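Second attempt. The first submission of Hydroxymethylpyrimidine transporter CytX had a stray character pasted in from the spreadsheet, which I only caught after the job came back as garbage. Lesson logged: always re-copy from the clean sequence file. Corrected sequence (438 aa) follows.
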Amino acid sequence: MTLDEPAPRVLSFWDQSAFWANLGVSLFAFSGAYTVLAPDVDGALRLSIAAGIVAMTVGTLLGGLMLGLAAVPGARTGRPAMVLLRGLFGARLSYVPTVLNVAQLIGWGTFELIVIAEAAGELFGGGPRWLYVVAAGVLTTVLTIWPLGSVRLLRRFVTVAVVIALGWFYLQFFREGLPDLTDNPGPSGGAPFGTDWSMFWLATDAALAVSISWVPLAADYTRHSRSEKAAFGAASGAYALTQIVAYVLGLFALAFAVQGEGVYQPFLTVTLGAVFFFVFVLREADQSFANVYSTALSIQNLLPRLDRRVLSVGLGVLITVLALGLNMGDYAGFLSLIGSVFVPMLGVLAADFFLRARGSWDTSPDAPSRWSMIAAWLAGFAVYQLINPGTVSWWSGLWTDVQDLLHFTPQPWMSASLLSFLAAGFAAFLVGRIGRRA
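This time the job returned cleanly.
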């Protein structure tokens, strides 16, 4: 299928809710719960479990609203996410975020296969890693070739199994007797949990970044929505709800974890844990499916005549090969970098789409370049980096020098995500008003 073919409007609110709800329950939510507790460079946890739950809830709710905003333009126009950016930046300038999106989606798809392989290894007590990676890659590719059928499959069968598995693990953890979530010694044999609430907004940004990672994909699916309300409600509500449930479960598991054991061991040690954890491992393929499908649609913004199904097969092979040769990298740093790019971009999109253009955009291949929107995007990106330059040494060192030059010191209450979103949106609104007057 190419971009010349209109998107069928066949997905109901419940179809989309099942899709987003499944994306909210990720193995990343379990392994990434650690990052919400704001670990320092030595690995010491600076937030308690209770503070982490509050930060994660706030970040996820805000991220869900942002995801809902990103979902509406796709439902209104019927255009994929990166094609929509032709109306925001112009056809040629939209290639810049498109290339960035392709790069990050290939990275996410590769990470997902690695996570599936690692979880499967713990589930089955070892075994050939390459076999798990290849099996996950094949399943991902098959789902991507028939995307609408895959979304309906999630609604009818997988969602029910995931809900049962979540309920079972909550029940088992409560039976184990949860430790004090506000002041406890931390994982058995490990560093204690902290009580420093000054890291609250840093933890909130870590949770928000997970939601934001889906923003540049949202319209790829909501373009098939039967209505804008269904698209917004499913994306903002279903995703936020299940991500909160999954993250809280991951934080509970962290409280039971024993130092030196795998991150998923608390799930496997409870009654029937292996059976229900297998549901999570199998379901994780919908994450890699979403990444591969959206990568193919993003490439079509560059090369619109390429068939999506052919691209999907090639991308499935690519991420499988990458997953065979790579290991998990700096997950927290990766999330921070993704957030710093796409949070301000969403601010620009929301301001221009809803306030200036009111949904009337030129997404043709000849859409004129709009450098003012690029400038607004970069302004928001700079605000994010000044507040939270991340953990990549050479990159963070560069922005630390800029902080010194400006005599700027980030304060604990500053949320890089929220302030960059607002700064980019305000800049886009301002230049839009100036442009209309001119």
